């Protein structure tokens, strides 16, 4: 079936398409796209549900209901964007992370399931009841907000260099009723306001850690995410290096650093932390069996 915005219109109110037909057309478009989606059905349901403001179940409960012209036009634009490879989360403007429903936009990374492991690891550390925790490179606020949602007495702050990401994180804090989490704009720990900087019990970070030459940068969602959220110099280790050194200056005795890193950076990160004077250094594996999160504890000695 040849589909276009004009061809779809047979009245100023109703399009010629039912919900079921719209889903079928979208799935056909996704299958014919240059890089076909491997989740065509789900993508179609999410996008149509988003446009109609209904849950996916409702699409199947009333499959014969006609959609309006403007709904069809919005849907069709999203389908075309998805065919170009744009991430579903950016098209919907939201992403689930931990127990939170977060807004996302192109200012920063879409929070990943791997990063939930980082949250899990931090929640498992022996931190004080009123711990001071800082998330460096906070992006949408995912990590800081997830931690704060689990520990009402923790004092959690986030820093990001991108002003739009900071503004997004503040929006998410308010959406999640977690306004007590403060977000600052700045260059890693230099962006921390004085009251949030010392003594820290935990520095957590999912920094940019991909090498600029990594072929994965040309594939999937990352093509649409900001390079400043993904890439770091020195084979992806440059920002991890800066953060580890800053943590050594800011952590209280026995305070923790917890870093997400690339699947092939576990040994390098563990070696870096040990060489800076961290102890209890260990690495956790993600659900795909890759070394993903390395932690270490600071001792009573300045780097
Ligand atoms: C991999 S993203 C992580 C975002 C978020 N924490 C998450 O896990 O979804 C890295 C973040 O670090 C921020 N960033 C990059 N360089 C920075 C710097 N020099 N100082 C502060 N933040 C920086 C980016 O803007 C981006 O939001």
CATH fold field value of the largest domain: Rossmann fold
Q: Roughly what fraction of the amino acids lie in strands?
A: 15-25%
CATH superfamily of the largest domain: Vaccinia Virus protein VP39
What is the count of helical runs? 12
Q: Kindly state the mean pLDDT as a whole number?
A: 93
Under the CATH scheme, which class of the largest domain? Answer: Alpha Beta
State the share of residues found in helices, binned by percent. Answer: 25-40%
Query: How many β-strands, per DSSP?
Result: 11
Overall geometry:
elongated
Sheet with most strands? 7 strands, mixed
Tell me the distance between the termini. Answer: 67 Å
Enumerate the distinct ligands.
S-adenosylmethionine
Query: Regions with pLDDT < 50 over 5+ consecutive residues?
Result: 6-11
CATH architecture of the largest domain: 3-Layer(aba) Sandwich
SSE arrangement, N to C: EHHHEHHEEHEHEHEHEHHEHEE
Count of the separate structural domains: 2
Helix-and-strand structural type: alpha/beta
Radius of gyration, in angstroms, nearest whole number:
22 Å
List the helices and strands and how they pair.
Elements: E1 14-18, H1 19-32, H2 40-52, H3 56-61, E2 66-68, H4 69-83, H5 88-92, E3 94-97, E4 100-103, H6 113-123, E5 132-136, H7 142-150, E6 155-160, H8 163-175, E7 182-185, H9 194-197, E8 200-205, H10 233-236, H11 238-250, E9 251-260, H12 266-276, E10 279-285, E11 291-297
Parallel strand pairs: 5-6, 5-8, 6-7, 8-9
Antiparallel strand pairs: 1-2, 3-4, 9-11, 10-11
The protein binds S-adenosylmethionine.
């Amino acid at each position: 079936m040849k589909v276009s915005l004009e061809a779809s219109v047979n009245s100023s109110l109703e399009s010629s398409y039912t919900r079921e037909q719209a889903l079928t057309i979208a799935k056909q478009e996704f299958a014919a796209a240059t890089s076909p989606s491997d989740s065509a059905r789900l993508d179609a349901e999410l996008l149509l549900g988003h446009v109609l403001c209904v849950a996916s179940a409702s699409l199947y409960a009333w499959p014969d209901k006609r959609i309006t012209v403007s709904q069809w036009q919005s849907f069709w634009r999203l389908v075309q964007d998805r065919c170009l490879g744009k991430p579903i989360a950016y098209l919907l403007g939201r992403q689930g992370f931990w127990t939170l429903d977060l807004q996302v936009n192109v200012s920063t990374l879409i929070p990943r399931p791997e990063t939930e492991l980082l949250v899990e690891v931090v929640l498992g550390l022996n931190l004080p009841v009123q711990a001071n925790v800082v998330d460096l490179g906070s992006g949408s606020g995912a990590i800081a907000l997830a931690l704060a949602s689990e520990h009402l007495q923790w004092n959690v702050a986030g820093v990001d260099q991108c002003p739009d990401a900071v503004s997004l994180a503040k929006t998410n804090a308010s959406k999640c009723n977690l306004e007590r989490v403060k977000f600052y704009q700045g260059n890693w720990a230099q962006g921390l306001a004085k009251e949030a900087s010392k003594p820290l019990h935990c520095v957590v970070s999912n920094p940019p850690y991909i090498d600029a030459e990594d072929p994965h940068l040309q594939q999937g969602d990352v093509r649409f995410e900001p390079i400043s959220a993904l890439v770091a110099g020195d084979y992806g280790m440059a920002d991890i290096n800066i953060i580890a050194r800053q943590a050594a200056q800011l952590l209280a005795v026995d305070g923790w650093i917890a870093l997400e890193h690339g699947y092939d950076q576990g040994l390098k990160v563990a070696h870096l932390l040990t060489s800076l004077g961290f102890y209890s250094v260990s690495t956790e594996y993600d659900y795909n069996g890759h070394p993903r999160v390395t932690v270490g504890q600071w001792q009573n000695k300045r780097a």
